[in-house]
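ok trying again, last paste got cut off:
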Amino acid sequence: MTQEQETLSAAFSTPPKRPRRLSAPSPALLLAILALAASGGLWLYQQQANMVVQAQVGRQLANYAQKAADASAREQALTERLRAMEREIALLAGKQAEAQGQQATLTALYDALTRSETQRVLAELEQTLSFASQQLQLAGNVSAALVGLETVQDKLAQLDRPELIPVRKAVARDIEKLKSQPYLDVVGISAKLDTLVAGIDKLPLAVDGYRHPPEPVDASAERHWFKRLVREAWNDLKQLVRIREMDKPEAMLLTPEQSFFLRENVKLRLLDARTALLLRNDGAFRADLHAARDYLANYFDAAAAQTRSTEASLKELSEESLAIPLPSLAESLAAVRGARTEATGVRP
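nice, full thing came through this time. structure:
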């Protein structure tokens, strides 16, 4: 080997290693190591925390997913229930519409029946009021008219229709008018006249008052036949010729037949007076009573108690006044007829 080769090999050969001497670490290195260790610890802590958070988030997501599934199931159930309710509501709506149609039909029928009933009752009430008005105006019978008005009032109360309130008010006003009316006892006066008519046949005539009562009979003379015969003969002789003083000779000339017709004439006068009473004809009533009193004064025995009682009754009756103005029922009749016209004109 040449020198050049030795030089080259020496140049390329590795120098021998020298033993190193350990030196103390520098503070910067220590700080770097500490920082690296702290960073690694922090990274590990963050990783662990992230894993905990991820676990919690996973559990919450699973819980939320379960709740969402439950909510979806409940929503599905509610949806089905809602659909069922909608079907039931639709069915109920159909039934309600059908019930409303039936109710409308029933209402129309009820209105028609009620209106017919109202018309029928109003027709009856009009007839009742017409009869009461006739009794009041023709016969002056306030009691019968008042009974008719009260009957009409009761029927209107039973009917209880709002449109008939004016009719009820009119009837109530007419009732108040009749109740405040001066009272004439037509029935009582008619009863008195009937009693007088029945007693005419029992009144003694004037000719009866001139007849002498039979003389009292002596009991001792009645037992002796001769004395009795003489007494009877004497009585017969006294009946042949009798002189009497008479103030009313025409009353003594009445035959039995004329007496009968006289009593019948007095009865007719009293019956005419009763008819005049029912018709409220004051003039005819007084005239008939005056004629009956004249018959009593001229042809009947004024001294008899029955004649005096009849004369007193006729005088008392002649003092009765029949000229009492009576109200009319025109307001109630007009109200009933107006309500009947309205009920007839309105169609259901």
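cool. The CA atoms of residues 269 and 288 lie 5 Å apart. Residues 210-214 have pLDDT under 50 and may be disordered.
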